[in-house]
Here is the input.
Amino acid sequence: MRKLLPLYEVFVRSSRGLDHKHVGSLHAEDPVQALEYARDCYARRSEGVSLWVVKSSDIVSSQEDDAESFYDPLDDKPYRHATHYVLPDPVNNM
Amino acid sequence: MKNSNIALIDYVTGLGDDSLILGQRLSEWCSNGPFLEEDLALANVALDFLGRAQMFYDYAAELHNASSSAEPITADDIAYLRDAREYKNTLIHELPIGDFAYTMARQFLIDCFGFQLMTELCKSADKSLAGIAAKAIKECRYHLRRSNDWVLRLGDGTGESHERVQNAFDQLWGYTGELFEMTDSETELLTENISVDKAQLKDAWLKQVKDTLTEATLDLPSDEWAISGGRAGIHTEHLGQILAELQYLQRAYPGLNW
Here is the structure.
């Protein structure tokens, strides 16, 4: 089995003013080729006006094991949400 | 039919034939590419050429129908109902795909030429031709970027890739001279600024090819032999085989639709 080429993550901005969204990944020899393949694999039906490619191994992600310490403590801190506060009457729209 | 119309139909059909035959060749890679991403990319390029053929043939059919009282024809008739001797593509387009290095070397030689040709054709006095060229030129730029990239990768890659792509250029070189030959129709249309004076494109083409080959650590092949005849309908044995596959359905079941 041939060695697989490095993996890249692809992000597409669908129109001016919007954010780049992750759309998938692909294999390529280097960033230049990754960008060209991103065009061919993810933007061939005019899906976007801008492309980003990032080497997958350069992305640092949270792990399943981190979930308890990362996210659970936030569940009982309702005061971090604006809706927790009772607004004075004069403030109508917020 | 007016003489100038005959020349124009001949010219437009030849441009369409180049695109159709190369598109058909490239589509042979579909599902056979070296890896998924390249498979998709090659199929995209193949479709670009088929789309270009459609534009040229539509225009050729329109010209034909405007100047003939015979039964009107369509782009499909031009693609599916002519025999090899009536096809006018230059020979380099019809050669078998070979290995991946060969496909990319051919593509690079044609893309360099195509970019020059379409740049000039954008200035044609014939508004329809200029319009087709204006659409095609954007694709040409991308095709050239891709094939140029691959020549560099393969030439400056492993010992095997270098050898394969060098062999490919050596085998293809003799077919490149024909790209710059002018047919009688083209020379005639040149007086009305409709066609492109291809002899003028050669220096820029050669420089671009030379620069890339040098950067790819490849040798520019020598001009030992040259072959031509495609524009006159004299083809290699390979064209008949492409047409057999391309035209099979319409020949076996005339007028079939889906």
Q: What stands out?
A: The longest helix of chain B spans residues 36-67. Chain B has a mean pLDDT of 96. Chain B has nine helices and no strands. Chain B touches chain A at residues 35-38, 40-41, 44, 142, 145-146, 149, 153 (CB under 8 Å).
